[in-house]
Amino acid sequence: MHIDEAVRRYTNFLLLEKNLANTTVSAYLDDINLFHTTFNFTVTEEISPMHVSDFINLESQKGLSASTIMRRLSSIYNYLLFLKDEGDYKYELKRIPGPAVTKTLPTYLTNDEVDRLLSMPNLNTDRGVRDKAMLEVMYASGLRVSELLSLKREEVNFNRGIIKIRGKGGKERIIPIGEFALEYLADYINNVRFHYEKSDKRTIFLNTNGKPLSRQYFFKMIKAYAQEAEITANVSPHTLRHAFATHLLENGADLRAVQAMLGHTNIATTQIYTHVSTKRIISAYDKIMK
Q: What positions carry a catalytic annotation?
């Protein structure tokens, strides 16, 4: 089978049968396309288990993190599993060991650091009003970056104070959001957004061309604001999501409730934030005792 046809069929399988989100499918396809271009495959019959092993070795030599390499390995394995089920891959599938992934605690911010970060956007500019709304909504809801940037107007209920989102795997969840964040969001929608609205009537956060914002923009934006706020922690687009979860747990929120709001399938994923909270408490205790 030609590679283009294989990718087309696999894309339809992920979207229609697995019901995965577009952003998730796009990430899988990026890994698969990288695998294809590394060896210049033209048909699926050219792929062998040796290519998979060689690809992982090449990726390891780039100095990539273990988690990135394991994600790419998983993407390729599931793709080949699909091809085998379709009768287009003749080899036996065996799990290829990847690098060991060490679990690290998420980067967290103190309440003061969050306040400083959220105060950085210039509210005298359209961009500042939009960026302020994005940061406030993310911290108040714990949305993933992809969920924030694709947020639709109909998904926000201002009267009930909730966001109804469809996240990873197409799973729907309802998240409460406070009045403070909603005020900044309403300010942006009512006083700024309509200046840039063109064909996209639904997506909330738009750039100056009326298009949805990219993850790259958000990454650069939050990095720049963190630098202005003189925050030394390695701030990333997920940092406010981490802060949302950590601060909720520190203030007595139920672990299961936080799991539901974050959209975690496995509670073990949410439990890592209890370790972050414990680490902060111990750090504060140490400072007092010194």
A: 144, 168, 238, 241, 264, 273
